[in-house]
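Tutorial, part two.
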Amino acid sequence: MDVPLPVADQDALVLKSWRSHQLMASLQSRTATGRTIKFSWHSDTKPDVGESDDAKLLPLWVEQLRAGATHTTRRLTGEVFENAIYTGGTYFVLKDAVGRFVKVGVYNIPNASPSSAAELFPQGKVVTIREPYMKVGADGMAFVRVDDLSDLRVDVALPGQDATAWQLEGKLLFAAGDLAAALESW
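Running the prediction step on this input gives:
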């Protein structure tokens, strides 16, 4: 049976992976060939699950993400922790409403480049990912993969900025049967 790592250890592992990814991006930008560094298998993408109404999507936290799963009827919202980087895809670390970290890879951005990555996803930008797909990358680390740009919402309000918002989130989660997340909100 897999025993989950303590929260602090999981977050430290995400940030360590992120630092390695940043180093690879900086090395890539210095090479004459400008080769793309592969952190993911292109064949492992989010299955088509149809369209869901944004208003009906329930909140989701990093702790609830599961590798290999599309989290239908859910949305993950957080702030970009540090400026995004580009290594064949645009990557950033998302800090969710309860302070947990996850790496996010966004693909299929027209004209994406190292210079555009930080402009698109600067530190502090609030992002929502509709029905996030969590996968394991080529480096062995789990991350959220976004292939369809319509799954992204930017400059949205962070949930839970005050007690009333947290209570509303809790009620929505409770109504959906997610008691653990509802209790965390309350």
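The longest strand covers residues 74-80. In part three we will examine how such features are distributed along the chain.
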